[in-house]
Write a structure and sequence with these properties.
Shape: globular
CATH class: Alpha Beta
Strand order of the largest sheet: 3-2-1-4-5
Radius of gyration: 17 Å
Number of domains: 1
Number of strands: 5
Helix content: 40-55%
CATH topology: Nucleotidyltransferase, domain 5
Distance between the termini: 19 Å
CATH architecture: 2-Layer Sandwich
Largest sheet: 5 strands, mixed
Order of helices and strands: EEEHHEHEHHH
Length: 199
C-alpha cells in the first residue's frame, strides 16, 4: 500500500500564465491533495515597465533591443514568483496566429522562450505545459469566439475558484483573468485524467 511521508504537503500550487511582452498575466491556484479541489486562487499582472530591474538597465536591452529587454525583466519577475509559491505545475496559453496581426505570433514565441527560461532556472526538470486558446475557453465554459469581456464573465461564473486575492475578482484586468482561465484549464484536465484512471 502506498503511504505518503508524514511531512508531505497537503496542497500543491498550479501557476497559470497569459503571455505578453508588456503585460503578462499570472495566477496561482492552490489545490488540496486529498480532495483535488481548488482551495484558493490569486492573480496578478506583471507589467514589464514596472518590474525590477527596469528593462532599459539590462544588458539584454542594450544588445538586443527594448522588447527582449522587457521579456528578460518579465523572466526575472516570473522566477521570483516561482520561488515564492513553489509551483507543482506551470501552464501557459500557447501562442496562436492572428491573421489580422501575424507579426504578433513571433513576439509571443519570444515571450514563451522567456517563460521557458524562467521555468528552467527555477527547476530544470519541470515541464512547461502549453494549452491552446480553444481548450482554455472551453474549460471555463466560454465559446470559441469569446472576446475578453466574455472570458471575464465565464471566469466570474466559476463557483469553485475560492478566489482570495487582494484585488477583487471582478476588478482584475484581462491578463489576470486569462491567467486564471489557463490555470483552471490545466487543473480541470488533470482532474479528468485522475477520474478516468480510477474509474
Amino acid at each position: 500500500m502506498l503511504s505518503m511521508p508524514a511531512d508531505s504537503p497537503s496542497e500543491i500550487t498550479i501557476v497559470g500564465i497569459d503571455p505578453g511582452s508588456v503585460h503578462l498575466g499570472t495566477a496561482v491556484l492552490r489545490v488540496d491533495l486529498a480532495s483535488l479541489q481548488i482551495t484558493g486562487t490569486t492573480a496578478h499582472t506583471l507589467n514589464a515597465l514596472h518590474v525590477s530591474p527596469q528593462p532599459e538597465t539590462l544588458w539584454t536591452s542594450q544588445l538586443f533591443g527594448e522588447r527582449l529587454g522587457r521579456i528578460a525583466s518579465l523572466e526575472d519577475a516570473l522566477l521570483a514568483l516561482f520561488e515564492d509559491v513553489e509551483p507543482f505545475m506551470i501552464a501557459c496559453e500557447a501562442p496562436f496566429i492572428n491573421l489580422r496581426r501575424p507579426q504578433a505570433h513571433g513576439v509571443l514565441m519570444e515571450v514563451i522562450c522567456g517563460i521557458r527560461r524562467a521555468v528552467m532556472r527555477y527547476d530544470a526538470w519541470k515541464p512547461l505545459y502549453l494549452i491552446d486558446p480553444a481548450s482554455v475557453k472551453n474549460a471555463v465554459g466560454a465559446k470559441g469566439n469569446a472576446d475578453k469581456d466574455a472570458m471575464k464573465c465565464a471566469v466570474l461564473r466559476l463557483t469553485n475558484l475560492h478566489y482570495d486575492g487582494r484585488v477583487a475578482l471582478k476588478s482584475l484586468d484581462e491578463h489576470s483573468i486569462d491567467a486564471i482561465a489557463v490555470g483552471y484549464a490545466h487543473w480541470k484536465a488533470g482532474l479528468e485524467d485522475v477520474t478516468c484512471s480510477t474509474s
